[in-house]
Amino acid sequence: MDYILLDRSNLKRSPIFDSLNLPVRSEPIDYNIRGFIKPGWGFVRDIFRDNFVQERDLGASVAAYHQGSLVFELGGGWFDQSQTKPYDINTLQLVFSTTKGLVAAAVALAVQQGLLDYSALVTKYWPEYGQNGKENTKVSDILSHRAGLPDINEPFEMYVNWTVMIHKLEKMAPSWPPGSAYGYHALTYGWLAGELIRRVDPKKRSLGQFVKEEISDLINIDFSIGLPENREHLVSPLVLSKAMTNGANGSDRTIFTQFNDPRVHRAEIPGANGIATAWSIARLYSGLIGDLDNGGFKRILNEDTLKLATRSNTPKDEIDLSMQMQRSFAMGFLLYDDILPQFGPNSFGHGGFGGSIGFCAPSKNFSFAFAMNRLDVESVNDQRIGPMLNRIAEYLS
């Protein structure tokens, strides 16, 4: 028997399951590759293994759902550069802007609950925001990077202080009239969207707590914005690839080091500091488009809300003023029709600095996630996951 098929109908991860750490193949395993894979999907394991053979990855995990059920979940490599501890399926990883997809899901859920309206003015919910030319900003402008506040000039140590960042954003003047153009809001997106949720939540929870109670706990995923201190030991530290080490300037290296700081992990920096497993990210996206585990968990968003949340708010061929490239954003989600055409229309998700990603393809009823500790020049078509995604698309066709 080449592959081990586990009964994952009960997805509450018990200590017994965690301790199994079962190998995918029956023969001796190198590169610490362990996990779960359904028959027919073995090619994923082979491509995943090749990333370690070619030294593209130090430690990584990958997972996917098809038709609401887990089809593979693999971890491999090493937890850190000492190479004394395996990177496994329960290893937690900071995933940078892959977090933005979770924030987008949280805002969509608030819309579904009648707490927010994408077309409403931000000042309806957050009156103090209407200063210095931001009075006509819509919720949709914040979600689709059209708010005109792509950067904030504050010391990094201020990023862990939610109140300070919100007050700064309230007072800022936009770089362009809100709604008239778009430019990627790498960090400010998270505080802006998160404050909207905090303002309308009847329980006055932080964004991280809202996410935990309204999403993570309900579909049983491990995806945090604001990591509990007692879970820090599970977080694999980020490292730079040779290419990124050679190309990074002093400022980039400093920021990279700061995101390994446990104090940053405990803070809520929703544009960039989500911490998760690949399984949790893939499960989140599967739960956005349908029920999970044969109806055992109901979908997070209904079809009408999903259509609103994934409708493009970027005019065709408009150039991102921050990144100087063309991409299409919906309500916080990056649209992948042009980036991953092999997965059919209406695919959406979000990637993160260094190479992590989570996305789903509704037309295939498929979701995918990849997380890793070695940061490299990221692209969904790079050698780490590009060949894997192409083979998966062929398999699903």
TrEMBL record:
Report the InterPro entries cross-referenced here. Beta-lactam-related, Beta-lactam/transpept-like, Beta-lactamase/esterase
Q: Name one Pfam family in it.
A: Beta-lactamase
Q: What is the name listed in the Swiss-Prot or TrEMBL entry for this protein?
A: Beta-lactamase-related domain-containing protein
Q: Which residues form a coiled coil?
A: none
Q: Which residues form the Beta-lactamase-related domain?
A: 49-377
Classification via PANTHER family? BETA-LACTAMASE-RELATED (PTHR43319), BETA-LACTAMASE-RELATED DOMAIN-CONTAINING PROTEIN (PTHR43319:SF3)
